[in-house]
Structure to design on (1928 residues):
């Protein structure tokens, strides 16, 4: 891929269409980003190649920190008990605008940047959720904002939060719990996706835990009466949770996997383990549901004469939408526009789109920007951005880094994210975040209103208490899955 | 039925065959019984007609008490908190020999004394376990012994225990708990059956209870999340008990019926009830198993957010065999012999035997006496004689009051028990009990050895504690089933 | 209760407030109804006293038929295989406007018309869903319309459908299946309630069935291995349905009651029965869900070596809202107004309202008319009006025949429905239905639009097929519950 | 360990005690064995060090074959489709006496020959069932018999069957199925153990299978209604089997392990797998039970809308005891005597015995020989010797190769089996088998009677049909567990 051609064909065209609407300063920020695009793309591509799993992102975090340090950011590494977490900061005083960067990959995903399903030669992990773009794009925006702050001598601080292990490790939750966001005025984030949108969205609050049952081993043929089956405990718990489904609100979700259901049938199993995820659009409800599930686990142990303990693995708040910030983000996204494919990208996207049900979508769908919406009630997934959104005004966006209709966590996402389609989507995000930050630095009123909305939405008596309690970051939760 | 012919055809023949072996005194006892046979048959037939359920045996107990009183027995009625229980006593001093009389019928059994299945016009209850014969036959034996004691001026006491509600009410347990057997030297019992046998047998210890779950009602379509299903509680309990089956000794038995599984599907049920029976050849094991089942019920309530309580209904010890007494009983049964049918009885029996799988049996099988056996480990049923057998030396026998192969609790048992086949079987039992008592009065050594065997079998530290705890007799457990 | 005072205090006041808005013809209809009010109230009170259960409404249907016949209606009785169903008709030609009348009571409800919970001396059934008012009120409206048609010589036909057994018997379904509604232009209905509203509402489609399992009996202690438990079948079915909850759309409802879970624990049960209700806002979805539940029942039988069969008991379509008709009904309800209590009624209502959680409600809430709404997706209950609404344009309303906040199927509903509060609510409904019919006879355009809406809503390929298949009306489903 | 000392201390003592009872020829066989002991011990130790899992015993089988070949045996390798199976033969004509040799190790067992629990540096597998001794000891006996046959010019054939993968692979079953035992007159076997015994024993017949469920994956939070959980299938199957426990004979055993219960809770699992073992003292009953369990699996799939298939892994007949052969073996074992420890061995055994509940046992218990018993009904474990015992007269013995009270499959068994305690036990077995073979070659009458007993025990219509059907040997069932 030759970058110069790329620029000529698509981005320069994009710029043209924006010039009419953009202020000179915003135009300069766009130009700054485009000038440095190859640098940011290179960062993304390296992280894509590293494909490091949660809390094991040593190379990826080092690369991002180095990039920021070189640009004059001060770095606080190894924060909140997580070696791969960091905070990069530039400037001083209020307002403090934060941007988020993720960079962990997923297991069992190893692929190549080609439009067909292949196993890559080395390793299993892959960037099927596009966090290499997420990390590099946010860093690009932070540097661009820094450049403008510096040049314009605008007071204020830009911060980049390196948040590890989003996929099941919940790095952000520990950072929120440690108070690391307390002085921030607004948090801007984005996520790779299959369309361009700046909805003021929500997500499902979620708690997950591993329930570990201990029984008494015995020869299953010789003396099963001497044994107490830990697997009985797991199955009794599941049974009671399945009955509980009738007695929870329909928007609740409870799902489980038996991670250890005994190794051999000829022994009454002394150990068994089941993993649960509990979700609901409201984190308060998740807390209650989780307590009921824990009670079911204890009841199952009691009724099967086994013992149970549980370890909470993740605990994510639902995302509180912020309409004030969301509308600013949306306006800037509209100015930036979506992603335009060149001929090769169109072919690449078209090939990918043949591999799944893409219905009414065409490669050109990636050019559109979705109408703005406030989504009050989350559905589908969960994210550790949720916790941040309850303590500070937060908004995000999605950029079309994948072909239209692509599912997250698929090989198609790995493939598109590893080539120019992903790069273009990343640049859309970096630009939109930069312009949005510009607006916020220039409008104290917006920040005030965003904060008022937060206070109103979270209610009077809100006091942040992590769903995780005081557990330490599960630093080795991905060990053995590399 | 003309009794005189009956005597000529069968019983007189029987007597002939016995004369060689019987002492003059035993022969006189047999003669006494035969002389009064029509009186005892009449008592049995009246109780058969009353067919009163457990703890509701007002007419039946009154008839037995009147019969005994007329013979000079003193009566203690309404003992151990049970209005239909009584103790009849004659004589004084040691030894004290006890005989047991049952007289309760079964629900849903109403029949006639004809060899085909018909509904009787009045009522539902029927003597499908032959307790009318049990009661009348034991009374006949007690009177016969009394006559001999009186005439021979032998020191000692004969006692007849009227024990109500054997079928699920467990009258004897309350009598044992009240200490009413404490001064007895030996207990003689019998039971109607399909063969003649004096095995030193055992039975399964048993506890039964009703587990009552309370939940929270809610409209099952409108707001099931507001409800907590009591039926969920019952099903979760059953589930955990079904898993427990693998972890109990194979000779254990646990079975249940959901007596109340909600009335209508459109309401989350606030009430549900399940009845459990737990059995094992050893009452100590039943106590442990029952505790485990109770724990499963509490676990089920905990895991389904309901409440549970339980009421113990029956608690029977297993029967401890007594070889010493059993051998005496067996020898006398051999002398008495089995049941010989006349032509009409043979036809009646043959017709009955066509209605079930009677295999290698023929009507003449009723004439045989089974070889003696000591059955150490009970299987099949349970009886409240069990508790007695742990506190005092106890033995019993079965007489063929039903056609060979007949199941207890069947209409065929009702039918045969209501005519001369049943009467003849009853006389076999009455004779055998009388002769056995005679031997015991005459041999202090036998009583001593029987007691030693009891002490050895039940172990050193035995102290009687009813499986029922301190619950009162369930006097109305049959109300509404008449 | 003196009716004259009643009129002076409340209804005459009501009339006054309407006069401004009502056409002379509508005013005349109102006046006709008020003139005959005592007659209609008397009909309602008699049906309340009869309190006859579904398909057993012999007295109630006879009374309604007699009342209509006397007014010149022709009667077709015993229709669609249901002795207590009927169709009364007056006039000729198009349009044909239908009104619905229900008149069955509920079991276990026997009460008095006093504001406290008491058992009535005779019987158990009670009008806890207000169908005595439903029947008498619709008849009042039909007669009023007839009087106007006759006097004004307006062409067209008024029909009153006597629809038995709404509570679980589904009389209307059989009438729809028999084609008895095919020539009708619009169907008007109402239902007693705790507020006044003419929403174009929906309801949940529903199917219920009884699943009967047959196993093999065996002595549960002696030879449980010879038995196959029918109750195992029921519990395995329930288990698989409970797991299925995760895999049905959240708006689905599945609930069950174990109607027969065995009688005694000591026998492996050869028979067990579970009743299921399956609901969803869309009848097509119910059909699919029901098939899945049936499959689970067959699987349970297969896996427990038992046999299963099922009998469908009810099968109700969801109610299709009709906005065109609903708006006409709503305008007329607004003109008629809600229910105003006199002092005694206020006291009565206030006493009732103390017995449940009535929150922000006051007795005066009964005066209000709810704003109009189109409810596209049903929730909560189900009704056999659903089937009618899919074949002909149908709309309904609720009138406040019960104190504000009263639950249907409660003793409070029986009580209020048995005195003047219920009567007043019934008159509100009778008036609104009459006026609405008047509008429809006078506007062919409305009927055309209502029909177009129906065709649009039910989709192109719709062909009515009852959820019941070809089963006969369950004429004895309430036998034994009287 | 110095072998010469070893001999002086224990074996020579043993010899002394035997001389009185042994014929010269038998004495010579003993002497032959003792002379070559260090060679056989060396073979055993090498196999112990290889510790190869089932069907992967390449080195072990090669060593045994080489040893036998060198002694003049002809070798048929790679028989019955199993590369590590073989038959070694010497001599010609009748009678044909067979000896069995096993040599596979167990996974997750790696240990050292020290009396404490340690991990060995290389690998996981270990000889926790003593098959290295089993193989080497039987080979020793076969060579000894060969030497005698040759020297004495006795007609007849000695065969050594190398039977791989006893631990779950069931090598012998495939050899029986292939007819490889059809011409054998008697089969002699042994097994390492914690005591010396030549009971005519039985074992449980067993079948095991893996049930693989396929469902439909779906995002468990986003659209669980689109999914069908394969794990639901597994749990429904388990549920129905747990209920089935009440309805199988108490001596049946059914146990399971969920080998794959899904990897992650956030996806409705499309795949899940459960492994079952079904056992009973009678192989015909196992066949029936297995069919019932398969039916439950199909029912579970049906009721959860998943698919299931199963693969039978093992299928072992119960062992038919042969009293005729057993008594010959027992007499010879009595002559050979048990295992006497020297001081170091006593210390080693004592240390091991401290690590488990060894009750009344002392190291000296290893010297005893258990009284002879015919065990008609198997309990506890299962073995693929079962199939052989149904086609040809078979008997076996246990020698105390482990410290008294040691469990099979324990690290303690690995430890003792890897040093002189194991070696001594092996020699006891080799001697007993040699002497038993001697008796059989010399007594056609014994062989005839043994065969008559077999025919009587297995019944008239017996025709061998493997429980495995026609499945191929699962040659890779241990792959990945090394």
């Amino acid at each position: 891929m030759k970058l110069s051609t790329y620029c000529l064909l698509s981005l320069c065209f994009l710029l043209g269409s924006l010039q009419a609407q953009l202020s000179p300063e915003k135009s300069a920020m766009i130009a700054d980003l485009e000038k440095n695009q190859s640098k940011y793309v290179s960062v993304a591509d390296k992280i894509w190649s590293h494909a490091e799993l949660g809390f094991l992102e040593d190379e990826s975090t080092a690369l991002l920190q180095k990039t920021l340090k070189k640009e004059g950011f001060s770095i606080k590494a190894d924060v909140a008990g997580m070696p791969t977490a960091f905070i990069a900061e530039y400037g001083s005083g209020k307002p403090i605008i934060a941007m988020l960067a993720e960079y962990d990959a997923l297991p069992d995903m190893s692929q190549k940047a080609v439009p067909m399903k292949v196993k890559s030669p080395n390793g299993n992990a892959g960037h099927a959720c596009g966090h290499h773009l997420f990390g590099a794009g946010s860093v690009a925006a932070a540097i661009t904002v820094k450049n403008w702050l510096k040049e314009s001598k605008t007071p204020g601080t830009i911060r980049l939060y390196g948040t590890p292990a989003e996929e099941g490790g919940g790095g952000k939750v520990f950072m929120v719990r440690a108070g690391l966001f307390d002085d921030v005025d607004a948090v801007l984030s984005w996520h790779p996706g299959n369309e361009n949108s700046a909805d003021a969205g929500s997500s499902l609050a979620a708690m997950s835990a591993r329930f570990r049952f201990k029984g008494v081993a015995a020869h299953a043929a010789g003396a099963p009466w001497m044994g107490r089956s830990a697997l009985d405990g797991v199955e009794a718990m599941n049974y009671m949770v399945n009955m509980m489904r009738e007695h929870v609100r329909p928007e609740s979700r409870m799902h489980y996997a038996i991670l250890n259901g005994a190794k051999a049938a000829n022994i009454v199993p002394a150990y068994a383990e089941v993993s649960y995820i509990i979700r609901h659009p409201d984190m308060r409800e998740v807390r209650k549901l989780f307590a009921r599930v824990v009670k079911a686990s204890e009841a199952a142990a009691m009724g099967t004469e086994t013992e149970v303990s549980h370890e909470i693995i993740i605990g994510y708040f639902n995302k509180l939408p912020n309409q004030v910030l969301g509308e600013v983000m949306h306006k800037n996204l509209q100015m930036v526009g979506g992603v335009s494919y060149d001929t090769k990208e169109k072919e690449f996207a078209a090939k990918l789109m043949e591999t799944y049900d893409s219905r009414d979508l065409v490669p050109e769908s990636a050019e559109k920007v979705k109408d703005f919406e406030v989504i009050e009630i989350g559905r589908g997934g969960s994210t550790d951005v949720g916790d941040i959104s309850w303590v500070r005004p937060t908004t995000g966006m999605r950029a079309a880094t994948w072909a239209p209709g692509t599912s997250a966590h698929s090989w198609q996402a790995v493939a598109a994210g590893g080539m120019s389609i992903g790069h273009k989507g990343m640049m859309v995000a970096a630009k939109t975040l930069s312009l949005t930050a510009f607006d916020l630095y220039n409008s104290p009123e917006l920040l005030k209103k965003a904060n008022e909305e937060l206070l109103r939405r979270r209610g009077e008596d809100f006091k942040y208490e992590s769903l995780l309690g005081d557990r330490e970051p599960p630093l080795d939760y991905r060990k053995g899955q590399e």
